[in-house]
Amino acid sequence: MNNDLIKMRQATAQVLASQKQLENKYKAAQQASEDWYRRAQLALGKGDEDLAREALKRRKAYADNASALKAQLDQQKGVVENLVSNTRLLESKIQEAKSKKDTLKARAQSAKTATKVSEMLGNVNTSSALSAFERMEEKVLTMESQADALNQLTSDELEGKFAMLETSSVDDDLASLKRELTGSSKKGELPPGRTTVASSSSTLQFQDSEIEKELNELRRRANDF
């Protein structure tokens, strides 16, 4: 198609060049016809009819030539227009074919790539890959469990150390309390804050006195009623 387009362009260029030559010849013949007509007028004005007649003959010859060139030029224009139209149509078809070619080429490349990907996926052992991922997951879980156990052991060790410190503090307080009791208490005396307990008989007498008071109060209220 490209060769045909080149040939059509060359033919169109040749026809256009020929048309240009015809236009120049037509313009020259028409100009000569007008010039000889003016000369005939000049000769007739001078009274020379024979010279005027010869000028008119020349004018007619150029006029006839101009008419023939005009007809040929009109025909040439039709040919040129047809060639230009066909050339543009061919250019459009070539461009369309080129676009389709590029599209088909891109589609073919995409299909080729898709085929390669499918083949690669088909060659992959899915079960083996999944097993590998499962083993990796188990390994990670084991490592996480070990890390948690180490953290727990470290935490228990720290708590034990603090427990020992707290126990030591209680023992120190107990020893200090013993020293205070040993140093400040006298024979026959109780430590500060402790009092002797009253005898049982005194306690009973105190309780009887209170009961008698409540009984007398009840009697008084009964008499009032």
TrEMBL record:
Residues 19-153 form a coiled coil. The keyword Kinase does not apply. It comes from the Eukaryota. Keywords: Coiled coil. InterPro entries: PspA_VIPP1. Residues 196-208 have a biased composition (Polar residues). The keyword Coiled coil applies. Belongs to the PspA/Vipp/IM30 family. This is Probable membrane-associated 30 kDa protein, chloroplastic. The gene is LOC107793675.
